[in-house]
Amino acid sequence: MNSANKTQTDNLFTPWLSNSVEPLIRFENVTKKYGDFTAIDNLSLSIYEREFFSLLGPSGCGKTTLMRLLAGFETVTSGKVFIGGVEMSNIPPNKRPVNMMFQSYALFPHMSIAENIAFGLKQEKRSKKEIQRRVDEMLALVQLEAMAGRKPQQLSGGQRQRVALARSLAKKPKLLLLDEPLGALDKKLREKTQFELMNIQEELGMTFVIVTHDQEEAMTVSSRIAVMGHGQVMQVDTPDMIYEMPNSRYIADFIGDVNFIEGEFLGYKAYSAVDSTEAGIGSETESLAAIELATDQSTAASTDASNSLASFTTVVHGELLANSEKVLSEHDQVWLALRPEKVEISKTKPTGDYNMIQGKVWDIGYIGNTSTYHVQLFDGSIIKAQRVNRNRLNKRSITWEDEVWLYWNFDASVVLTE
Amino acid sequence: MNVNRFSWFNITSLTLGFAFLYIPILLLIVFSFNESKLVTVWGGFSTKWYTSLLQNDGFMDAAWMTLKVAVVSATIATVLGTMAALVMIRGGLFRGRTLFSGMIYAPLVMPEVITGLSLLLLFVAVGWDRGFWTITVAHITFSMCYVAVVVSSRLVTFDQSLEEAALDLGCNKVSAFFQITLPIIAPSIVAAWLLAFTLSLDDLVIASFTSGPGATTLPMKIYSQVRLGLSPEINALSTILIVIVSCGVIVASLLTKRSALKKSQYEQQANASA
Question: Per the CB 3.0–4.6 Å rule, which of A34, A63, B92, B188 could disulfide with A55?
């Protein structure tokens, strides 16, 4: 549901597709080393105004370092960082148009909530009246008016998180950095706060850059996500593109659940969606013999990838077909990445144009709204298929040890070469 | 395990332990109210030694000198020791850091006699008249190390992101230190000052080496008096010191208890408002 919403808003807000929009943040070939360890490795990245941008990755991937470079707590080893067109290397943290919300919240324990929020404004020597007005505004924004006089230790985790947010927003920075802002909250509160953050960001029209290791969080809140690994950006895209069109196995595996089927590229096959039922490809995919057949056919087929299907052989599953915009050459090693929810499962052999694999139900992971069927193929490997539990559990037609067919549309999988 | 909490064995060892610790002190207090001039013979209740103590200029001068030395040396040692701790904890891994930190902690284990002697040699070599300032400088040198240890143990657990947050909100480094770091580590600095203060009050060896004519501290005075023969005045003086120290301990424990109570109240409020 979220990704559908996102797609709609993305149609309205896509500064990264425009050549004329100047990015708010620009990393240019940035490298950061700690001794021998390279935290950021020759990274370039642009983030635009009003974006809710996520830096996502496992711990140690360099995402926090990247954020600290923006805040000014670290300096680059080589390369340049621009904020609003200004090069930042000689500008200390207190002179940057940036505020940060810390993972530990970093609330000052010896000051009241109101004093915490007022702290940044006091440093700017603003008038008492103005500070008071702004503090009240911020307290109202995070709904903590009644807590103004309390100390941070007198608040719950969720309230502290909101105080930290209010304090970092008080100076109206161009750019707000959020370092794992919801990491310390429990799941329910975290989900609620994600939407609060999105509303606040939209309301204030600010740019948010958030560091997180929680992929669901990144998917929910972001306009775009940069998935990081080994000090580099592996892919930058909208949440739906990251999920549906990952560019590597690293991304596909990091975001959501995925099956990988390894194989070898055979060639292209002409395919038209209109007369797909007449193509009869499904019947050819049962045996290894069909692969040779497929290879022969593919020589005659069009190599125009946009309206043809790439055909692959796998050691055990025979020939599989997939849409691919990639230009591949024969015998390339490829992986089909297949999301479990896109794999159908049936006890009877399906009719129609599908990739099909036979197997036996090895295990069923039941998590309430969905069940994940772990199907063991004849070579022992496991393919996961997910089903929404629309019926009551006792009406479940497929159970352990059942012989089943797994099948999926030709456009359900993504072809990956790395 | 709870069954035998008051077994005869536990009670005996408790009694013996406390007796061992406190009988000498109790005796001293009791004999300070002794009428008799003989320290170990009870001659009836009297407070006359307290009055004569207050009229004894030698003791009063020594007490005043000790207090002055303690306050001045503790204050300067606290400033220097805190600076040393900051550099050691925050300075990162500069070259020779281990050597420097070792050199800061070494005087803790150095025999006092050696510290005293080396300082005496220094003062003589420089030609500095021995008196108030030489004792004070000597006390600064050794109590500074204790301050550094106490303050750095607090700084280790100090959340660095608090200072970063202050920088982020527009402070420069100096004002971030004075507005954020200092107030938060203040309790440990106070504790370090008190430690330095007591160490200075307590010191006999180093003071004996570094003092000159006209600058006698209370421990030196008591020690020299005892060598000439025990006087009940010393019992009275010791009792006064014991009372002061006990008051300090009681106040400190009450404060700790109150802050613990406040903390648990805060936690309750936090849970209630969650």
Answer: A63
